[in-house]
Amino acid sequence: MPRTVDRDRRRDELVAATGRLILDEGLAAVTLRRVAEVTGFANGAVKPYFPTKDELLHATCRQAFERAEARVATAVDGTTGLEALRRQWVELLPLDDERRLEARVVTAFWEAATQDRAVAALFAGHHERCRTRMYQHLREGRARGEVRTAESDETVVDEALWLLVGLRASVALGGDAITPRRQRMLVEKLLEHLTVPPR
Amino acid sequence: MPRTVDRDRRRDELVAATGRLILDEGLAAVTLRRVAEVTGFANGAVKPYFPTKDELLHATCRQAFERAEARVATAVDGTTGLEALRRQWVELLPLDDERRLEARVVTAFWEAATQDRAVAALFAGHHERCRTRMYQHLREGRARGEVRTAESDETVVDEALWLLVGLRASVALGGDAITPRRQRMLVEKLLEHLTVPPR
């Protein structure tokens, strides 16, 4: 097995352990030493992969966004227009354990985004790619006559994006988070608005 | 001047300084020593007011929510129904410097809410009070025939609350945050949906 495969696997393992540490003990608990500890590696074994704590944290935040986007791409594959929007939006909801954990990791980085340009850029990039996909599927939906709303694409995209961000943030509150049933209903209502012709 | 007034003023000063520290240097930079430093007090002068860092942080988070709720109460005063909802929702938007700073302080505590039950309870309490007010004004609006949507009050409240949370979180991204004009448009669109009678 080539050496780079081992390296990639080790990196993934360290990033996954960092995500779990963030969930269990909070972002402040993450140190290279602590990540070595929970993965059973020797002290200093993390440095060849992530020379600094910031690099490890950035990789963890980036991976959460990349995973969400990869899941969206798979879910949407082969669909267009309204159905593609539905699949994208549902996929970004914190509906199950995997997606709730991902949402919690991402939410943990909101504060870092106010202090750290690199983290802010990761958020901005993710939101930009989400927006680009929404605009594309709205265009497809309008071309096929499925999307008939008088609202501008810009308003539709803003509403969907920031509602989804709010719902992902809601899971950080644990017990008080909005239920999966109500999350799905909100997405269906957003989609329904799109089909209403101008009065 | 009674001693308690001095004490209250000093507490407010320390909480305000903590908010500024969070904005300028991040939540992790807050220590009792650092807050004493930036307020020009002697080391140890903070302890009589806030014996622990957690108490100071909780007071800072609580104050941000209390201020937002007090502003909403003032803005809504004397109105009911749809107009009261409009004023509440606009007041919770991060439209100007004061409200953007408040939104950034609150956003900084999202990660803490995942780790600290007391912080989670502050968020849950704020959201519950926001919801209660929304339900009240929706009832008033339905009674007067202004609110005609077929959507349940629960769906309307979920959508508004989590969109507003998402918009407040968006300001943490700084330059990429949604503009005040677009924020206001989203609130107007939400209100417009409420006036649409069932098809």
Summarize this, please?
Two copies of one chain form a homodimer. Chain A has 199 residues and is mainly α.
Key traits:
mainly alpha, Arc Repressor Mutant, subunit A, DNA-binding transcriptional regulator, AcrR family (chains A, B), 2 domains, transcription cis-regulatory region binding (chains A, B), DNA-binding (chains A, B)
Describe the structure.
- Two copies of one chain form a homodimer.
- With 199 residues, chain A is mainly α.
- Chain A folds into two domains: 1-51, Arc Repressor Mutant, subunit A (Orthogonal Bundle); 63-195, Tetracycline Repressor, domain 2 (Orthogonal Bundle), CATH 1.10.357.10.
- Chain A contains nine helices and no strands.
- The first copy, chain A, is elongated, with a radius of gyration of 19 Å.
- The termini of chain A are far apart.
- The model of chain A has no long low-confidence stretch (mean pLDDT 92).
